[in-house]
Every structure is written in C-alpha cells, then in structure tokens.
Known about the structure:
1144 residues, five-stranded antiparallel beta sheet
Amino acid sequence: MELENVTIAAELSSSDPTKQINALLILHRLYTAGKDIQNYVSTVINAVLVKSTDSLVKKLCYQLIKGCAITSRHDWNFVMKVIVDDITNVNQNPDLCIWAFRTVIGLCGITTQLQEFFVKNRRQIEECVCRVAFDHVRMSALHFIKCLAISLRQSETLRSSTFLQQMNESSTCSLFGNWILKSITSDNQEISFVAFEILREFICGDCKRHFHFEKLPILVTKESLQWITFFKKYFYLLLGRIKCMDIRRRFSALRPITYIALTLTDDIDNDYQNNNEENNQNNNGTTSPNIDNNNLSEQNVIDNGKVVLMNVTNLLKPMLQSIECATVLETCHCILLIALNSNMTTELTACTNNLIDEAINAYLELLNREESSFFYDDLMKDICCVLNTVRDKYTICIRLFENIMKVMNDTNRMYLISNIVKILIQCSVNSRSKQYYLKLIDQLNEPIEIELFLREGFVSKLWSVPESQEEETLRCDLLFCLCREYLSQKPYTPSNNNDYSSDNNNGDAMDVKSNDVIGTIDYSIIHAWLDVGIGICEYCLSAFTWKDSPGTCAAISEFAFVLTDLCNEAYNSFNTNEEQRKRIQKILNKILDIILKMKTEFSELVSMCILSNYVELQKQAAGRESGDLVFDHVRFMITSILRASGGINEKLKIEILIYCLLRVCYRFSPKLRDTYEYLKNLIEKRNTLSKNDEIIDLLKKNLLKVEYAMKYHVTNDINVTNNNNMKDNLELIYGKVFNRDHPIFKSYYNEADQYLLNCYIEGLQLLNIINNNLHESDLYQLKNNKQMLSNTIKNLRIKQENQSEHYKYYSEIISNPSDPISVTASYSVIPDSYTVYLHVKVQNHSPTDLFRTTVEVGLEGSLTLFEKTQQATTMIGDLPLNQSYEFDLEFTMNEFSHYSFHILIHCTHIKSISGGIDLLEDKKQKLNELVTIRCKPFQIKTCHVLNNPVHLLHKDFLTLWENYDNSFHLKVVIPKEEPKRINENEISSVHLAKELISKMLHYLHFIEIKQLDESIKLKDNIFQLCYSSKTLFKDNILLIVFGYEHFDDNHYLCDFQFKASSERVYNYLHSKNLWFQEMIDETCKSLNKNIFLCENDSHNKEYYDITTQSIFDKVKVNVVKKYQLNSTKLNVLYLKRWDTNRFV
C-alpha cells in the first residue's frame, strides 16, 4: 500500500501528462470506492492543476477536487485563480470553462463564498452569460446564477443588502433582470429552461409543492415584487416563449408566469378604480360623468383581465395530461391559485369554475399511479381543501373514498373521511331542504347524497363483509366520523319542554314560549337535517351486529348518540313530523328484532337503554306489546348475567339493566309490580349463595326505590311532571333520561377506542390548520367549509344562535383615566377553530383633534397572525374630537400558554402643513412630536381557554392520575359553615365545604368526578374530592383536593394537587398562580366568601402535610393533634381502594 502511494505521488509530480492522467484515474477509482484521498488534494492542486496546460489533465483535476474539502487557504487561492483564468479564457477552451463553473459550485455550494466569488468576478460571469457564442457555456454560467439565487434567498445577505451594496445595485432585479430576459428569449430551449428556473427562485422563493400548504392570499417579498414588476411588461413575450418550449421543459416557468398574471390582473383592476376616482373628483360640482364611457371602460377592464387569464389557462390546460406527476401537481397548483384569487371580480370568477373541475380531475387521475403512501396523503389533502369549490361533489367524494385505503397515516385518514362525510351531509341537507322549501312532496322519498354514498358498491361491501382487519378498522372510522360530523352540523332546534336542552355541539336549545320565536325558525332546514339523520340510522343499524374489533365501541357510541338525539327530537320538540316519528319507531322496532343477533355486550346494553327510554307501546307481529318485549328481554339479560356469575363488568352491567327496567316502569307504570316481584325473587336467590355481596346491595337499593314508587304513587303523570319538586323524585327513582351525558358511553372504551377518538381530534386540528391558511374574503366559502342554504333572515337567525354559544367573550377599558384617548379592547375565543378575535375601539377624548394616529398590537404567548408575525400595526390617521375608530384582528392559538395583548397608541396634536407626510421634514422632529400611550396589558382569561371535560368515571380518573408524573400543590383556606337543615335533612359542614369548592372550581370548568358518599367524609373530618378539566387543545388537567378541619373550628385547610397530561400545560399552571387567584377573586365576589391562597411554595411535596402549622389572616393556628398520614393512607388516601359510583 505504501508502495502504491509513493507511485501515485511520483506520477502526480512528474511533467508527463500520461503519468498524471494515470495517477488521477487511480485517485478517481479510489474516491468512487469510498476511499479517503484527502492527503492527495494538495498535491493535485499544486503539482498538477496549477502547472499543467493539458485540457484532459485539468478536467480530471476539476472533477476530483470539486467534491473534496480544501482546508489550506493557500491551496484555495490557487484553485480560485485557475478557475478565474479558465472562465476568462472561455473562447480558447469552452470545455474548461464549463468544468470551472461546476467546480466552483461544488466547492462553494450555496454559502456566502459563492457570493464573494461573484462580486470579484462579475465581468467574466456576465461575459459567459450574455456574450459567449457557446450554448453549453451559457448554460453552465446560468446554473451558477441559479445557485447564487438560492444562496441569496437562504442567507441573511439579501435582507441586509450587503451583497447589493458591494455590487452598487439597488436590487437583484436590476442586477440580473436583463441577463435572465436575454436568456429566456434564446433559441435554445435548455437555456430558456434554466433561465426560468432562476426566475422561479427570485419570484416564488421557497414555494410549496402541495396546495394544502399554501397560504392565501399569496405573500411575496419586496425583492419578488420588483422582479414581477420588471417582467410584467414582457408578459406576452414570456408567454410566447413558453408556448414554443417542449411541454417537459415548461415546468419551471409555470409558477412565475402565474404570479405575474395575477399581479397584472390586479393592476388592471386598480388602474380602473383609480381612474374612476380621478374622474369623479374632476366632475364633482361641474358635470355628471358619462355613464356610457364608464360602462365601456369597465367592460374593457373585464375583457383585459379575461385575456390575461385565458392566455395563462390555455397554457396550463395541456400540462394536465403530462406523464410526470410533478408537472401535473404544479399545473393544478397554478390553476387553483388563479381560480381562488380573492381579488377577482364576479365576471372573472365565473370563468374559473371549469378550471377547478379540470384541476381536481387531474388530481384524481394521479391516484391511479404507483407512488409512495406520503404522495397519496398529500394529494388527497389537496383535493379535500378545495372540495367545497367543485360542482360535482358527490362523484369526487366517491372517488376519494375508493382510494382511501392507500392512506396509511391514521390522522390523515380521519381527516379525509371527515371531509368527505361533511361535504356529503351538507349536500344532503341542501337537497332535502330545497324540496321542503319548494314543497316538492313527490321527491321526498328519493334517496339523497349520503344515502346514495352508503349504498355504493365499495362502501356497501365494506359495511357488510369486510375482508381484512384494515377494512374493519376503516368501517369503524367511517361510522364514527359520519355520526360525529352529522351532530356537529345540527341546526338550532327548539324544544317544547322548558327543562329539556338538546345535546348538540352548537349549544343548548332555547325555550320556546311565544309564537314570535317559533316564527323565526326555518323548519325546512330542521326537517331536512332530521331526514338525513334518520337515513343514516336506517342504514347503520347493522353496526349493532358487528363483532368486537378495535374501535367498535367508540363507533357504536357515536351511532347511539345520533339515535338518542333523534329520539329526543321526536318526543321533546315540535320539530319532527308524523312521518319522521314513524320512521324512528321503525328503527327502534328493528333493534328489538335483532337484539338476539348482537355480537358485543356493549351493543346489547346501549340498545336496551335506548329502547327502554323511547320505544312506543304498540303491537308487534307476535301479538305482544313492544314495552313487554323490552321488559322481558331486560329481565332475561339480568338473569343470564347472574347465572354466569363473574366478570370484571358484572356489577356495571347489572346497574345498566336495572336502570333499563326502571325506565320501562317510568313510561309504563303497571310494570312496577312485576319489577318489585322480580327484584325480590333475585334477592332471595342471591342470599342463598352469598351473604355479603355488592350485587345484593345494588338489588336491595333499587327494590326500595320501586317500593317507594308503588307506595306513594310516584309515576310519570302530567300534573306531577309540571311540579319541579316531583321531577327530582322521579329522576332519583327512575334515573335520568338516556342521552349522550350518560356514563355508559365511556364505560366500555378501551385503548383502541380512545386511539380512534384521538386520531379524529388530531384530524380536526389538521383541518383547522389548513382552513386557516385560506384567504380572508373566502370567495368559495372554504374557510368555514359550509354552504349557506339560502340567505334568508330566518337562516341568519339560526346561524347567530348557533355561533353565540361558541364565543367566550370579555371586554375591558385598557387605557388609563388620564390618557387623552380611551381604548376599549374585547376578545372572542372560538374553541372549535382555536381562533381569537380581538376588537379594539379607540376614541378621542382630548380637547383637540389628533393626527398621524397609529395602533400597535404586540403579542405575548403562542398567538400568531396569518402572516405569522408577533406584532400588528393599524394606521388610523386623523382622529377628530369625540370620534372613534374600531378595527378587528384575527389570531390563531398554536398551543396552550399565557396569552396577552400589549397595545400602544402613537399620535400627535400637530398637523403637517401639507396635510400629509412631509419627506423633507426632520425625522427627529417628527418623533418628538409623537405621543405614545401605553395601555394596560389585555390578557385572555384562563377560564376562556379551558373547556368542560369528557365524562370520566372515577376508575378512569384514577388510572389517568397514576399515569401522570408531574404535580404541584396549592394551599387554600376556606371558611367553615354551620350545618344546615333543609326539608328535614341535615347538611353537614363537610358537604357545604364540598359545594363551595365545586362552585369555585366551576369557574375554570372543573367538573367533579362522582364518588361514593363514604369517600367524601372520612375519619376526623378529612375529605378528598376529585375534579377534571380540559384545555382547548384536549389536554387533561386533573385535581385532587385534600381537606382538613382546623383547630379553630372556623376554617378548612385544603391542599389542591394538580396534574396535567402535557408538559406545557403543567409549566403554565405551575409558573404563575394568577389564574388561580383570578378564580378565588371571582368566587369571593360572587358568593361573598372569604377564601384565600395561603402558601405558594409547596410544589415539591409528594403528600402535603395538612396538619402542619399555618399562618393566615395574621393568626397563627397551632394544630394540637398530629396525624401520621403515612400509616393511615391505606384506609384514607390510598386511591385504588376507593370504589366508583357510576349511576344515580
């Protein structure tokens, strides 16, 4: 090996070109094989490259060193000198010039070294780009300019203008514009192709490949706008050159020509508007404007805009048939940018509908090509983000779902399914509401879009006989999203029961007490929505017979939500007609027929809950009444479970089935006697087997309820139900009406069900992120992803009622009393879209007019504008005396944090002489004239970024509690109240303290986790309570309150221990106690109670010792009796020993 190294070094140092070539070829083979040849680089440079005059030798040297690292500054200077010489002598040896450009690109990359090389050798490079007759040299020089453009875009040099200052140029456009224009107009298509690539770099920058990543309207930098302005006058020249190029070489030119066309269209429209304003000013007070001339000029503007867009679209259409996926994607992207331009006039918008359809069809054709799974994910996202703009939505949805199995990512799949079913449900409601509105009775029996979708071949086969585990999972995903999206689009539906409130995502229903309110409701929309839901339930009824698989319980739960909601509408509102009520009863009777065919116990239990609450008393085919059938089958199920005697969920199933028995008795009171006898017999049989059994206690408890109802005639009577006091007794005996708040829906969830729910939530978050990128004017209603049925006052009323429940609103005067300007700020938080709307009102209370008024809004926390900036500036200008100015800003909450707005007002009472900004005026004098008013920080309340959590059983709460690691403590003192007696029932001080804590925590949406009564009051007045809350981003916040009665008998000392599922939530809660103090202050103000936080430094204690000495209200409390909590925690604080209270 050493001999070989000596031979290579000797041949490199010789003056014989043949030996040098042989040595260089050997080094090439070693380099290609991955060997280290770094030791030979210096020899190659100094002994061969610098001294040799042979062309082949120098080519081999360039090829070898362009991929190596040159560490010596001396060697670097030698190489650069040789490269410059070869570039300068381009006419003598063009091939060496090409290799010189390749080498300098390989050595410098896209770093600032490439910019330094251009600064020193601009004249030689310009000669190669513009004046050399060799096309391959010009292409190499243009490749160098392309790398330079990338370097300028990615480095800070362009922003600091250092590069331009060194070149004595005002912009990159003035430096390279004529070079690129001359190269584009070259007869060689390859030169034009590279020139368009450079133009793409300067105009479009780091543009997105897929449309769903795009942010509309398009934002360009100052440099990009200068390039667009320069090439606007050459638009038709560029267009003609692109048409002459081969279709495969047009790719790099599509995005730049689209940007230029959009800018040119906007300029035509702006020039027309400016001319109109000048004409109106000139004709004001003299003569009226010529209407015919104005109409003619407007038509010319429209025609000019059409010509520009038609030329570009005619260029783009043939590209949709390209065999290259990247070309088709780029073409569709450009077409959608043109079609969704928010500044486009109505006449031009009508011309783009066909373009959108053609682009979407081209997207769909790409689904048939063999690509990676990531490609299909992004491709389907592109289609879904503009799905609402397509005219034939049904066909597109079908084709998307047929290819849904190609999407491997679970979150992306849930996002796509949600989009598909959302659009189909909207189309179905639109179609049916039009039929109701126009009273097309004959068409009401025809199937609508969502029903046709479910009957399609692929969907029907998937629904009935899935062939694989993946298809079973997809079936559950489809049912889950179908039911979730249907309930999320529920319109405002009034109730005829004042105490009943509908369980929909849009908020609680209002009480309907007057004909005026009823008259403002468009029942055609409500009936259409109900028809869609009934159609879904009729088809999805077979879900009860699915065998148990991952996600089945979650999907069936959502289906049960829909069915119970429809039953509530049928029996508790004016909304359903007679035909709809009959269809709902047919569904319930079908459930009764297939009850023995159900494959999972969860399906049986939830179906019996629905039947016992809503099935009507009517004759069946066998001659028996449906109420009797439900009653007998419930008893059969209870007996079967008790015979099996065992299982983890035995008590839970018995509780649910007894609840069903009592609900049947509530609706059919003669069944009370049978229930009493049945429960009595069960207890007698059970006593013979076991004396101490929790099942026996459960049966005895319910037997007492039935006996009480029989003895005191507590039945479902009209006169009784109108009495509020008797309603509580009815619920206590018979249980509450079965709806989505019932704990059965979460009691059977497993990890797969929870994973399905999490994927759906992540899919919705992805939907919000994509929708937030769409332009503000929302020309095609993409942002809301909804279609208004008809712009009537009734529909507007419904929309306002629905949206009002989503807002979390707060307003405050944030200026100081001494300020000359009054500033009122308010915000509205919309949890579903993670959006905050800030409204600012500025009013002039000073004795004079104000001028040059500017408002700056700074942000604290994870808030961003659509420009992704942390500051927004609004120019108000002149603000006369006692006048006000209002503006709105929209922000996106990216993650849970502390949110705050910092508002500054700049103004002056001195008016400029010219009425505007005087450029000759001294800037320092201007700054001295301005007055800055700093407002108080405007914070978003913590309660407005928290939501009510999903119902948790105590068992599930304890599981989450043990899995969360981080925790911290806060010590709170609450007053002790004397026991009270209400209706001969004494309420202890511990229960009063519990109620006070629950009311206080309700401010932050903490919901108590139900436990047994024995767990509330423990030994020696020690109590423990469990609560949970959830952030807007679905992060869990858990709380356990440990309480102890103080020695002075006047207070309870409570330790609040918090845990969070997310580290950022934990850090926020732990860092500052202002959010907690805010809750305490609000409680003290509303309840007039003396509650206060006494210690803040207890976060390091695993179990807070509530018996230690504490100082509060300047009184030192000595606890006389000491408790050893470590020895008693097995009986008191050991969480796993606690039981659950699932049903009331």
